[in-house]
Amino acid sequence: MTFIPVEYHGVYTTGPEQFTCVLLRWTAQNRILPIWISPILAADLEARDEGFSPRRPGTPDLMLEMITRLTSGVAAINIVSHFEGVFIASVVFNDGEEIDARPSDAITLARALQIGIQVDEDVLTQASFFASDAILEEYFGISIESEDAEELLTPSASGDAAADADFEQMMRSLGMSESDFLDGQGDGFDAENSPEEKDTGSPDT
């Protein structure tokens, strides 16, 4: 496997169903990988990203405490496979041991430990979609410095009509339209019927 570091861009909510997801970005290819999670886990992760500390330890806190006390420490957080919308992650320890995990748990752990997230290149190729700098800013509020500011002035949002068409087709396949993003701009994606929920047959809890 070839693992590629991705940027974490937080929790997003979109669509009339208010689906939630974590947004990861493959920087070199300007491709976006949404990892769909349940609204409850999304709210918890977003609160932690904003510096909230629960009065009593929750599951992520217990997980972190056990790892700190009982293991050699975490070396890497990887998303290793994807099949029919279901992602599988792994937690790799400093001693070489590795355990499977739900992506939502693995991402929460990565954020708590302040370590990066890596995704298998095949997973990125199969499950991510291209998004131009203009689309990232318009739909997700993500500002990416561009060497060519003229790109933002072209009739096509990305300067590549085919890429824009692919993006719109991908959105329609998820049951979403441009208005869904504009209505929830600044929030983003979401997840009750998200692909990852197929792991357990119910929302990612």
From TrEMBL:
<protein>
    <submittedName>
        <fullName>Bifunctional nuclease family protein</fullName>
    </submittedName>
</protein>
<dbReference type="InterPro" id="IPR003729">
    <property type="entry name" value="Bi_nuclease_dom"/>
</dbReference>
<feature type="compositionally biased region" description="Basic and acidic residues">
    <location>
        <begin position="195"/>
        <end position="205"/>
    </location>
</feature>
<feature type="region of interest" description="Disordered">
    <location>
        <begin position="176"/>
        <end position="205"/>
    </location>
</feature>
<dbReference type="GO" id="GO:0004518">
    <property type="term" value="F:nuclease activity"/>
</dbReference>
<dbReference type="InterPro" id="IPR036104">
    <property type="entry name" value="BFN_sf"/>
</dbReference>
<feature type="domain" description="BFN">
    <location>
        <begin position="3"/>
        <end position="131"/>
    </location>
</feature>
<dbReference type="Pfam" id="PF02577">
    <property type="entry name" value="BFN_dom"/>
</dbReference>
